[in-house]
Design goal:
By secondary structure, the protein is mainly alpha-helical. It contains 19 helices and six strands. It has a domain of 42 residues. Helix 12 links the parallel strand 3 and strand 4. It is found in: Nucleus. InterPro entries: Fun_TF (IPR021858), Zn2-C6_fun-type_DNA-bd_sf (IPR036864), Zn2Cys6_DnaBD (IPR001138). This is Zn(2)-C6 fungal-type domain-containing protein.
Length: 541
């Protein structure tokens, strides 16, 4: 059995091999025994992140008594044996586009609620169950079992490495089809234009892109093989001193998060969100100041905004505060940016789109906070402040964010929802986020309300929520190529779905969800079944 010692406690406790509570500047153990409490210099550490290799079966063990401890493995033969496992070779990497690695489909599933767990939708006034749960794991990268890396390039190389034809095909597919998923609020398209160039010198990023693209193309063997190689390299890379400041590493993890979401079992929606925790760990470890630029001038800042949107999806489905550092300040604000250069418009529009992303995160945090009782007296004033911020954004944004057409659908389209067209992805996404904010603030406005309503009645607030929901549905129907809009539909439906009573609207909402999964492999069957259960309809097997 290994001997436990404190991983990040004071040097005194670590020397004595006792658990330290890590209280600064003097821990309780040293204070109690009147010992000098000495600390080592700060160093980067990644908590709450355990990259998962589906083939090797690394799984989170959850919270335990020793989760903040390292294990001295000098006499742990079992651990040393585990490190000798090698998931792949360089030759396999070169041939992965033709053959891949056969993997049981179950190996792509992530841990989470079992298939037998109940899944339900929840409106702010109904006591219905929610799928999933908030993860509270605390697992360090240093505690992972590390397989030997496959032979070949190191995780980062100053020299470009040639791609195989299969890899190049999938990187091209990513740039043509999938980059816009990440660039949906970035007018400079850094993930579409910058990432394909960087994959040649960063194998971790290359394998992340290949796994995402192959999964979207339903080439599952190739996707699994690339993912396994990516995780092997990633585990090794995370413990390097400058890992938290490597923007390519952060980009790889936010891309892996999309791969992870496409691998969620469609029938259950079980999502462990491991790579979301990884992005959070790196961002928090490397935050040099308390400001973030909404214009996203670097790839790293662009990755931050991708992460915030990914957080919003998980937060809304589980109705929990998003895992975002809200001590950050936006600087410069979009309204203060003045630059006559023609290309400055791209930076300005990016800033306005990301300002709406940040507003949405603030609103979600306000609505889903777990213990609002501490500020109950000020809650209404905080609600009003957020409402004013959201409406000010709509009033002050550039005119280009307005839709070029907004009206009833034609008879040919045969849609219940309005037609709404935009000229850019970030305009459409900002539109969806604006309506998301409005419906949330309507739903969670503080104040007295009846616990029970008349049977069959719908309140004024519910009507307002549904109007915003119809706007999102209309934008999704009109511009299905803007994938982030459909993602917004998937998670906001847990706010307004139970309110829909019109059979035509219900059918079209289900059609939107089914078409989204068919086109983009995004798991929606579990959402459809949850909706049908809420509406009292039979579920689809």
């Amino acid at each position: 059995m290994g001997k436990y010692r404190s991983r990040s406690g004071c040097l005194t406790c670590r020397a004595r091999r006792v658990k330290c509570d890590e209280t600064h500047p003097v821990c309780k153990a040293c204070s109690k025994k009147n010992r000098p409490c000495q600390w080592e210099a700060p160093h980067t550490k990644f908590k709450d992140y355990q990259p998962y290799d589906a083939t090797l079966g690394y799984k989170s063990t959850g919270t335990s008594e020793h989760e903040d401890m390292d294990v001295d493995e000098s006499d742990d033969e079992e651990s040393q044996a585990s490190r000798s496992i090698s998931p792949s070779t360089n030759q396999e990497r070169k041939g992965s586009d033709q053959h891949g690695t056969t993997s049981d489909s179950a190996s792509r599933s992530t841990s989470g609620p079992s298939a037998n767990d109940s899944v339900g939708l929840h409106s702010p006034r109904s006591p219905l169950p929610l799928p999933g749960h908030r993860m509270q794991s605390s697992i360090s990268v240093s505690s992972l079992l590390r397989p030997h890396l496959p032979e070949g390039p190191r995780p980062y190389s100053q020299e470009h490495v040639s791609l195989t034809q299969g890899e190049a095909r999938l990187v091209h597919y990513y740039s043509e089809q999938l980059g816009r998923w990440l660039d949906c609020t970035d007018a400079t398209r850094q993930f579409t234009l910058g990432v394909p160039e960087k994959v040649k010198c960063c194998p971790v990023l290359c394998h992340a892109v290949v796994s995402f693209a192959a999964r979207h193309r339903r080439e599952d063997d190739i996707a699994d093989a690339a993912y396994q190689r990516c995780i092997a390299l990633l585990i090794d890379r995370l413990d390097e001193p400058n890992a938290s400041h490597d923007e390519t590493l952060l980009c790889a993890i936010v891309i892996l998060r999309f791969y992870e979401q496409l691998n969620v079992p469609s029938s259950t929606g079980s999502d462990a969100a491991r790579h979301l925790a990884g992005s959070s760990a790196i961002l928090r470890a490397s935050q040099g100041n308390h400001c973030v630029d909404p214009s996203a001038p670097t790839l790293r800042e662009a990755a931050f905004w991708v992460y915030v949107r990914q957080c919003l999806y998980t937060a809304t489905i589980n109705q929990q505060p998003p895992d975002v550092d809200f001590s950050l300040q936006l600087h410069p604000t979009p309204g203060s940016m003045q630059d006559p250069h023609p290309l400055a418009r791209l930076r300005l529009e990016t800033a306005w789109a990301n300002q709406m992303t940040w507003n949405t995160a603030l609103v979600a945090n306000f609505c889903f906070e777990t213990d609002p009782s501490g500020e109950r007296k000020n809650r209404l004033s905080r609600w009003q402040e957020l409402w004013d911020v959201v409406q000010a954004w709509k009033k002050d944004r550039p005119a280009g964010f307005d839709s070029i057409w907004d009206g009833p659908a034609t008879e040919v389209d045969a849609s219940c929802f309005p037609q709404i067209w935009f000229t850019a992805d970030w305009h459409a996404v900002a539109f969806g986020l604006y309506h998301f904010c409005c419906m949330m603030l309507h739903s969670f406005k503080p104040g007295p309300r009846f616990a029970i309503r008349s049977v069959g009645s719908i309140s004024t607030t519910d009507c307002q929520v549904l109007e915003h929901a119809r706007a999102i549905c209309g934008a999704c129907r009109s511009t299905p190529e803007v994938v982030q809009l459909s993602i917004i539909l998937c998670h906001t439906i847990f706010i307004w779905g139970p309110l829909v009573s019109d059979p035509r609207e219900r059918n079209e909402i289900i059609q939107l969800l089914e078409e989204f999964e068919m086109a983009h492999v995004w798991p929606t069957a579990w959402i459809v079944n949850a909706l049908r259960a809420e509406w009292g309809l039979s579920q689809i097997e």
